[in-house]
Amino acid sequence: MAERVNYAEVVGEEYVIFNEYRAAGLGSMAGRYPVAFRPAERRAFEAGRTVAIADIMADQGLTSSEAAAYGALGVRAFVSVPLVKNERLVVVLSVICSRSREWRPDEVELVQETAEGTWAAVERARAETALRESEARFRRAISVPKVGVLFFDLAGHIHEANRAFQHMCGYNNEELRSRTHWRQLTATEFHTVTAERAQDLAERGETPPYEKQMVRKDGTRWWGLFAPTRLSGSNLESECVEFVFDITDRKRAEEALRESEARFHTLFHATPSPYLVVVPSDFTITAVNDAYLRATMTEREAIVGRPLFEVFPENPAFPSGGMPSLRASLERVVAERRLDEMPVTKYDIPRPAAPGGGFEERWWKPRNAPVFGPDGLLVSIIHHVEDVTERVRAEAALHESEEKYRTLFDSIDEGFCTIEVLFDENERAVDYRFLQVNPSFGRQTGIANAAGRRMREIAPLHEEHWFETYGRVALTGEPVRFINQAAQLGRWYDVYAFRVEDARLGRVGILFNDITDRRRSEQSLRESERRQTILAAELRHRVRNLIAIVSEIVDRSAGSAKTIEEYAGLLGGRLMALARTQTLLTDPSTTTVELATIVHDEIRSLASHEGEYELSGPEVTISAKEAEVVGLAIHELATNALKYGALSEPGGRITVLWSVIPREGECWVTLDWHEKRQRSQNSPVSSRRGFGTELIERRIPYELHGASHLN
What we know:
Strand order of the largest sheet: 3-2-1-6-5-4
Largest sheet: 6 strands, antiparallel
CATH architecture of the largest domain: 2-Layer Sandwich
Structural class: alpha+beta
Number of domains: 5
Mean pLDDT: 85
Low-confidence stretches: none
CATH class of the largest domain: Alpha Beta
CATH topology of the largest domain: Heat Shock Protein 90
Oligomer: single chain
Strand content: 25-35%
Radius of gyration: 70 Å
Distance between the termini: 194 Å
């Protein structure tokens, strides 16, 4: 009778006892053991032959260690039946006795039959377990909430669908099985592609996954990804299963992405600002807009896919540092993951061969911005540039012009300033503020530190015409040139005024010259010319008068003299007196003269005797210039008296009185000339205003700042 039965499987190099029967009191042999079959046993097992041993201890080839192992396990006699599958030993069923015994053939056959039955039962149990597990896995698989599972045939009938698919389409299983054809579930525009996929299943049993739009029970649409395969059958009798994923959200996102990309594409290529997109690893160009192509004279096909610095190398003839600066900026964007704005940078660009090749000078204002993906990784860099070449050139030209202007501004002799005209609410110019003055301004005006100050602050009595003129220039923009006086500054100016900058600023540029000295010279010249005219006229008049006086002296001397000797004496004395007066009036070395001397000498030279005149007054000294005027006036009065007045006939008399009187804090000299004569029928009379009269009335007020009155 067997004491042990072991069911063992060979797993790799291990002998694993899974199940056993053992008599009471025996220890378990279940466990894992190294495969240690003896060579004869291994060959028999691998050949599928049963091994029956009556007494293992009687085996002459048994080693002492093997004997000890068998003894420890209580193994003396055994029958082992192997199971070989695919030429590999997989199972051994052993019946074991602890004592030696001879195994009868029927006993060996029984063990073999038992082994075969056991193997069949084990395989059946395993298959049933695998089936249950498979069905459980299948049920779990089709119950996944997000994955629809659909069983159908190629005639278009649906046999079963899981809850996920029922939720997707809005139909329950009963409705799907009894009334629904796949055409009801599929949007009309996808009927053709669905039929083509069904044809693939019928012919080949499989078809690639595909997308289509479905129609729910309520009429709304949804997008699904379908992955069908044939399970059994052929042609229209084919039984198929289809896994379905609701991709509506994904399709909406894709549509939104397409719309966004379309808007971006439109905006990217329509914007007038140049843009370029590069990858952060090696700055390869991935996208470029039309404005950038125009700005750099390139073609999209020629630059997309190439590294940025390969497309735009440094100008070898005039290296400006543009390439290193741009590379450093892009590397900062990669390292710091933030926008980097570069200053205005010179970066010459290659010129196409058609216009002559080489490089073209360009100045740019670049900005480099990072673009991150959904995972936060840097995926692109947007390179935006503004071509500021013309601005830089204009600024350079302006700087050069300003330098020239500044040189001219600082070196010209003319005064120059810019002012801001200040208006009241009625647009009437009421003042102006100096904004800028050149070095000559102070010399021309005598005003120091004028910039920032107002004119009424500097010169409160400045004439209104200056404000009116500059206000008109600021408002109309019409330049004006004029000459005018600034009385409070004590100067005359030749001025050219013109509007500068924006009309709304009310700014006027003023170029001017101080012509005070010129005006004085012109005035002096005019006065000199006028005086020369008067003097010439005086000279002519005086010559005529002298001739007349001499003639009168000769005649009157002849009439009063009784002898030739007396006549000669009178005539000579009078002529000498006349000469002395004329010498006094014309001698430039004379500085002061007594008024009494002028009056006495002039009258005495014309009067016949001292009884014809009376002179009275205090001692008064006058300048030579004043003596000339006064002497001329006395001479004219005396000459007139000789011709027509008191001295023209015997018995006449001249009275001359002068005095000094105070007036307005000054001393004034008054001189009164009175004539008295006996009028006869033949007395000479003159009613005309001669040159002498005009001369007295004009020169006394002008030369002496006095007044004259004749009657």
